[in-house]
């Protein structure tokens, strides 16, 4: 092979390598979108990849184990059942005391209803990805399934203006909200915005009433408000006893009561979450699995 032919071969090798590098970089900049398999029930919206990631299982508790929230349970069941039947239903805001079952009830109700309606799906969207909600809704609006979009612990901090876009999304803006999508959110705040944010804007507003209307109008987009309140000692002990009976934990009632109260005192509160954490501790202590 002549020197000229050797140089041509080297140039070809270099060109081939550069082409491979270019293709690799292009793939990183514009990755091939993954296709979602909608056979499952639960999904998580991966905003950066614009991809719905299917879940193998949905982390939840049996709906029968959620005690002392019967009215909240019935309201959410009715609304979800209407939606699953292709009837009109409301966006729902589950608000109130932390640890009282807002998230657990949302997932438990979905499991209960979806057992009878295979077409019902649950999609979780993280709080930090709310700005991508319009894109998610466009992807789902033409699907035959019906979707409950679920955001846990939804709230907005001072200086966060994404709540303004959420208002339009909840009612669909000019296009209208897709009829196969509904939005459920849990929050410790009834109006989703911190008190300081409302008070600061009131102080600087020419018309205080207009400022209040602007802030409250976000939560008004939810047709149903379902409130959760702190548990009494009696309610807390009933939750503990119910869990212990369900999981057949080997402990006498008096010891269970005493230890559960000590646990709540140590945690500084009596909530459904504290009751479950105590039962988790107790089961491990007894060497039993739950």
Overview of the structural elements:
This protein has 290 residues and is an alpha/beta fold. It folds into two domains: 42-55 and 64-228, P-loop containing nucleotide triphosphate hydrolases (Rossmann fold), CATH 3.40.50; 233-286. The protein is 48% helix and 13% strand. The chain has helices spanning 3-29, 70-84, 102-114, 133-140, 162-171, 195-204, 208-220, 233-246, 253-267, 272-286, and strands at 42-46, 51-54, 92-96, 120-124, 146-151, 181-187, 224-228. The chain has a seven-stranded mixed sheet. Strand 5 (146-151), helix 5 and strand 6 (181-187) form a beta-alpha-beta unit. Helix 2 (70-84) crosses helix 3 (102-114). The longest helix is centred in the first third of the chain and has 27 residues, at 3-29. The N and C termini lie far apart (75 Å).
CATH-assigned fold name of the largest domain:
Rossmann fold
Nearest-angstrom radius of gyration? 26 Å
Shape: globular
CATH superfamily of the largest domain: P-loop containing nucleotide triphosphate hydrolases
Strand arrangement, major sheet: 2-1-4-5-6-3-7
Tally of distinct domains: 2
Quick description:
With 290 residues, the chain is an alpha/beta fold. Helix content is 48%, strand content 13%.
Keywords for this entry:
290 residues; alpha/beta; 2 domains; seven-stranded mixed sheet; 10 helices; 48% helix
Topology:
Elements: H1 3-29, E1 42-46, E2 51-54, H2 70-84, E3 92-96, H3 102-114, E4 120-124, H4 133-140, E5 146-151, H5 162-171, E6 181-187, H6 195-204, H7 208-220, E7 224-228, H8 233-246, H9 253-267, H10 272-286
Parallel strand pairs: 1-4, 3-6, 3-7, 4-5, 5-6
Antiparallel strand pairs: 1-2
Helix pairs in contact: 2-3, 6-7, 8-9, 8-10
